[in-house]
Specification:
29% helix
Length: 94
């Protein structure tokens, strides 16, 4: 099975489909940014009308990130409270 098919299969298990799948060679990133490149997947979930972005330096890391995405969303308020975040926070540039 090709890597693209693995990605499509993993997304379909969550009811999503790929909008964009991109891979760039791993390279040296800008100062203080870490490596650049890797996998970038933008996926749509038609049921809740949301787009999700998944990243990974390797196909294994990407598939891992696809299989654990939805537990770490604002909908899981208990998890965010445990981590010290509040849903009503607003982010500002100041």
């Amino acid at each position: 099975m090709t890597k693209i098919k693995k990605i499509e299969k993993a997304l379909s298990e969550w009811g999503m489909y790929p909008v964009k799948i991109r891979w760039e060679p791993i390279g040296k990133g800008m100062e203080m940014c870490g490596p650049s490149g890797g996998w970038f997947v933008e996926a749509a979930d038609p049921i809740v009308d949301k787009l999700y972005i998944f990243l990974g330096y390797s196909i294994d890391e990407l598939l891992f990130n696809i299989h654990r995405p939805l537990e770490f969303t604002w909908d899981n308020e208990e998890l965010f409270n445990d981590l010290g975040f509040r849903k009503d926070w607003e982010w500002t540039d100041g």
